[in-house]
Write a structure and sequence with these properties.
The complex is a heterodimer of chains A (about 270) and B (about 550).
Chain A: H1 2-16, E1 38-43, H2 51-65, E2 69-74, H3 93-101, E3 110-113, E4 125-126, H4 129-140, E5 146-154, E6 158-167, E7 175-183, E8 186-187, E9 190-191, E10 196-197, E11 201-202, E12 205-209, E13 216-219, E14 228-235, E15 248-255, E16 261-268
Parallel strand pairs in A: 1-2
Antiparallel strand pairs in A: 1-3, 3-4, 5-6, 6-14, 7-12, 7-13, 7-15, 8-11, 9-10, 15-16
Chain B: H1 2-15, E1 21-33, H2 45-48, E2 52-64, E3 67-79, E4 88-102, E5 105-112, E6 114-115, E7 123-124, E8 126-127, E9 132-133, E10 136-146, E11 149-160, E12 163-176, E13 178-180, E14 186-198, H3 201-211, E15 225-237, E16 240-262, E17 268-288, E18 292-302, E19 345-356, E20 361-371, E21 377-390, E22 394-405, H4 407-410, E23 419-431, E24 436-445, E25 452-463, E26 467-479, E27 496-506, E28 509-518, E29 521-525, E30 528-532, E31 535-545
Antiparallel strand pairs in B: 1-2, 1-31, 2-3, 3-4, 4-5, 5-10, 6-7, 8-9, 10-11, 11-12, 12-14, 13-14, 14-15, 15-16, 16-17, 17-18, 18-19, 19-20, 20-21, 21-22, 22-23, 23-24, 24-25, 25-26, 26-27, 27-28, 28-31, 29-30
Classes of the chains: A alpha+beta (about 270), B mainly beta (about 550).
């Protein structure tokens, strides 16, 4: 018993002996442009008090990676009812439908990155702001599979978008095309953690979808460097009066058979 | 799971004769989700598929010649406990342990539920309704120097659903018990505790990944170790019991949702990781006389958010438990607004008095006051109740709760006014004969904030000891800003949320079946808003102890 007691004491001392604290070095940010773009669908709402903080984070990421980041703010159902002070109602049935497509989600703010499910979180809509930049960077570091160009033609009653899709390598997969219209620089109230910000700038607000929610089927066989053209058009009656044309953007992205985004692009609606 | 349960019950019967003691508990919840768009019970997979979800815990413990062991199997199928808006399915080993005594040593290996002091520096526990299960998986050894002094050491990793966090916990406590004076009227039970959490390289990589996105002035250098210590004592003298505990922690990383960070764009936003030391002081003083009980509690908390992994949020990875400081009521409307413990800044005190005039008449009084260290009022409650018994025939309880609840801080709802509510209530129990009793509850909450005013009634019939029937309803009699509105007219709706239930009990077995409609609410904590959705459906709960 005596030796057992001392054995336990020895184990105790070993377990609780302290090591020198290693110094932690925080490396600088690495910015690497490989041509790949990332689509971020931000689940947000004017009544979501933590959304301004999340939006500030996304703005920083966009500041770092510029046009490689394509953002869409989805004001679906949760926490989106306009405030008493609001002049705009950002809700529409496209946003509602998309938000419901991303359910279940934990809450807002959450973002969907390239419509992918990442191992670090169990749902497609990720509320963990701490993870966002790393996940976006991991997507940016992947090889670009295709590029998207757009030419916008303004006709009498329609606006036609002539798109060119060029695979960087051969693709044997079903691809779908998606086209959205977003509006930026809308000044309207937004709830924050401690107050309502009266002159908050709302950017990339989803206004309209030109293609069906599930996308427009493009095909299943795509050869490297071959240009695949596709035209889509928008009836001008779908453009609401309150939208400021100069602040509209066309968001184009292509999804694969896993419904993951291959590439996305953002284009000025009116030059 | 059912096969395993049957097997275990058979083993129990076969081995009972060999002085092997087997005991256990089987608990099972089943929810049938029934969509109801009016109250907002929709949009999660369970409602869209008219699904059945549930959970089961099968807990079996054995004891044989001083050796104790146990195993618990946990199963989740389309469960909404982990995420009220999601569906979680998994099954596996929830707990396994073996324990025994060798001389003055008590040894325990496996999944440990324990705490040091009142749990401020370390508490591992299970809270099934919230799916909190932060067992320490490792070993615990206690050495008893005498009947009056012992030391306990812990080592392990914290449980994460069916896995483990990669970080290590080690700690010890030393507990004593002394008496003073010839008649031993004064007793002291002092103790000290120490806990160290060591982060793994993997966790540190995750932290560094976050901090590198901060600009220079917001960055802090994280450390692998956090150290916590506490000193506590329970003093008893005649009818007085005084508990006091002080806890400190070294400078450690945690998320402060109200700290301002500056983004690389120059824009400022709420919420960032900070590194600060923390303290908690807690004390309670009780006086227990023949017909009078008085308890006073006080607590001061500063920067004591400690998790096994600083990147965890909500109920995940909790290492410490700071006791709440308000009256815990079982009445529905009285417990509608509950002050969650604030780990970063809180000052709280509470006074509770229970007095019995005679066998027929008693009253109780509670006053609690909670505010931040910057003197921002968080919660204030006044509670008074009178109880009158006419022998064992009937019992009438009446009372009132007056409260103020800072919804802006507790639920992160900016610019909402302080919620003020007045809640009178009545509870009447009438025993028709020794086995048949009826009970009625009536509560009214008057408030102009949040969902506005509520009426709650409950009627319960008990046929002792087997059967209990319940019919209750919560009615939004005077809707306010947060109440659901008619989508066409915008008019606020007066909605009734009914519950109808039946409970069968026999010995330590219980089965309850309830049809429930429950109001929804948005709760924002730790920087994330979580919709606690309305519930509509049938709930079945079984509990079998053997």
């Amino acid at each position: 018993m005596f030796s057992f007691k001392y054995l336990c004491l020895a184990v105790f001392l070993v377990l609780f002996s302290s090591c020198l604290e290693r110094e932690v070095i925080i490396p600088p940010l690495q910015i690497d442009d490989r041509g790949k773009t990332v689509l971020i669908e931000e689940l947000t709402g004017v009544r979501c008090p933590n959304c301004p903080s999340a939006n500030a984070r996304l703005e920083s990421i966009k500041f770092l990676y510029g046009e490689n980041i394509v953002t869409v703010a989805i004001h679906g159902d949760l926490l989106t009812m306009p405030l008493a002070e609001s002049h705009h109602d950002f809700r529409n049935h496209y946003a509602s439908q998309l938000e419901n497509n991303f359910r279940p989600f934990v809450g807002k703010p959450s973002i969907v990155i390239n419509r992918k499910l990442f191992p670090s979180f169990s749902l497609i809509a990720n509320p963990l702001q701490d993870q966002w930049q790393s996940l976006i960077e991991s997507e940016l570091q992947k090889d670009q599979t295709l590029s998207i160009t757009s030419d916008i033609e303004d006709q009498d009653n329609t606006i036609t978008m002539n798109l060119g899709i060029v695979p960087v390598s051969d693709i044997q997969d079903n691809l779908w095309l998606h086209a959205m219209i977003t509006e930026s620089h809308i000044i309207d109230p937004q709830q924050d953690v401690t107050s309502i910000i009266p002159d908050y700038e709302h950017n990339y607000v989803l206004r309209h979808m030109i293609t069906p929610i599930d996308g427009l089927y493009l095909g299943s066989q795509f050869d490297q460097n071959q240009v695949y053209n596709q035209s889509i058009s928008l009836d001008k009656n779908d453009i609401q009066e309150q939208w400021v044309l100069q602040n509209l953007s066309l968001i184009i992205f292509v999804t694969n058979s896993l419904n993951e985004v291959e590439q996305a692009g953002q284009f000025r609606f009116i030059e | 799971m059912v096969v395993v349960a049957s097997f275990l019950v058979n083993v129990m019967v076969l081995t009972a004769q060999d002085q092997l003691k087997i005991s256990g508990v089987i608990e099972n919840n089943i929810n049938q989700f029934i969509r109801d768009s009016i109250i907002g019970a929709q949009g999660i997979p369970q409602y869209e598929n008219n699904d059945i979800g549930g959970e089961i815990w099968i807990d079996v413990n054995i004891a044989y010649k001083g050796i104790r062991a146990g195993i618990r199997l946990d199963g989740f199928h389309h469960s909404n406990l982990l995420n009220p808006n999601g569906s979680y399915s998994d099954a596996g080993l929830g707990r396994v342990y073996v324990a025994g005594d060798i001389g003055k040593f008590s040894l325990y290996a496996g999944y440990i539920y324990d705490q040091i002091g009142s749990g401020i520096i370390f508490r591992s526990y299970q809270e099934r309704p919230l799916l909190i299960d932060n067992a320490l998986v490792g070993g615990r050894a206690t050495y008893r120097f005498s009947d009056r002094f012992s030391i306990t050491g812990y080592y392990g990793r914290q449980k994460q659903l069916f896995g483990l966090y990669p970080n290590t916990i080690r700690g010890f406590s030393a507990d004593g018990y002394f008496t003073i004076g010839q008649d031993e009227e004064l007793t002291l039970a002092p103790g000290i505790g120490y806990v160290n959490r060591l982060l793994s390289d993997k966790t540190m990589d995750g932290i560094v990944d976050v901090l590198r996105t901060y600009i220079e002035q917001d960055r802090v250098v994280p450390r692998f170790n956090v150290y916590m210590g506490s000193v506590y004592n329970t003093l008893s003298y005649k009818s007085i019991i005084w508990y006091v505990e002080g806890a400190v922690k070294s400078s450690d990383l945690f998320f402060d949702p109200f700290a301002i960070r500056t983004e690389i764009t120059g824009r400022e936003a709420f919420g960032k990781y900070v590194k600060r030391p923390g303290t908690v002081f807690y004390s309670s003083l009780s006086l227990g006389l023949q017909n009078l009980g008085i308890t006073m509690e006080g607590k001061r908390t500063q920067n004591f958010n400690v998790r096994i992994d600083p990147l965890q949020r909500d109920n995940f990875g909790l290492l410490s438990f700071i006791p709440p400081m308000n009256q815990q009521s079982t009445y529905r409307l009285l417990s509608r607004y509950n002050p969650a413990t604030q780990e970063i800044s809180e000052m709280a005190w509470q006074l509770d008095i229970q007095h019995k005039f005679n066998n027929q008449f008693r009253w109780s009084f509670n006053l609690s006051d909670i505010y931040t260290l910057n003197n921002t009022q968080l919660f204030k409650e006044f509670y008074f109740s009178l109880q009158f018994n006419k022998g064992r025939k009937w019992q009438l309880t009446q009372g009132i709760q007056i409260m103020e609840y800072n919804q802006e801080i507790y639920e992160v709802k900016p610019e909402v006014p302080m919620l003020r509510a007045y809640v009178p209530f009545t509870d009447f129990l009438y025993r028709i004969n020794t086995s048949l009793a009826i009970r009625s509850e009536f509560q009214y909450m008057h408030t102009r904030q949040d969902y506005g005013s509520w009426l709650f009634f409950l009627q319960e019939w008990s046929l002792a000891p087997y059967l209990q029937l319940e019919l209750s309803g919560m009615y939004n009699i005077e809707p306010a800003t947060a109440s659901p509105a008619d989508p066409n007219t915008g008019e606020k709706l007066k909605i009734l949320y009914p519950t109808l239930g039946v409970t069968f009990s026999k010995g330590a077995k219980r089965l309850s079946l309830r049809y429930v409609k429950q109001v929804e609410g948005v709760v924002c904590t730790g920087g994330i808003c979580r919709l606690e959705p309305a519930f509509s459906g049938i709930r079945m709960n079984t509990y079998v102890q053997f």
